[in-house]
Design goal:
Shape: globular
Number of strands: 5
Order of helices and strands: EHHEEEE
Structural class: alpha+beta
Helix content: 10-25%
CATH topology: YaeB-like fold
Number of domains: 1
């Protein structure tokens, strides 16, 4: 299981999606990313963008908007409420628009 961290821009982007039809798809993507950020599902698959270090991954919300995130290792040893160690940390950068950070 992965920990999810939102950037300031992702929090701003989330305001556009809350009352939108994309909210259901965003919830599905968040559940998938928490479980395994590199897992492709039939409804949404991930893409690795070329030329970025650390690698940036995207998932399509609709034709124009993309869910943009990076995955970091858990070097601090963060744990969930039950004391289980996270596999890594997913940093969400954008949800509205299609440009990476």
């Amino acid at each position: 299981m992965y920990s999810v961290v939102w950037t300031r821009q992702a929090k701003k982007d989330h305001r556009f999606i809350v009352g939108n039809a994309l909210a259901v798809k965003l919830a599905e993507i968040l559940n998938t990313v928490r479980a395994s950020p590199f897992e492709s599902t039939p409804s949404h698959c991930f893409e690795k963008l070329k030329g970025y270090n650390p690698p940036i991954y995207t998932r399509r919300l609709d034709y124009y908007n993309r869910f943009v995130y990076t995955v970091e290792s858990n070097v601090n040893g963060a744990k969930d409420r039950d004391g289980i160690l996270y596999d890594g940390i997913v940093v969400i950068h954008r949800m509205w628009g299609h440009f990476p950070p």
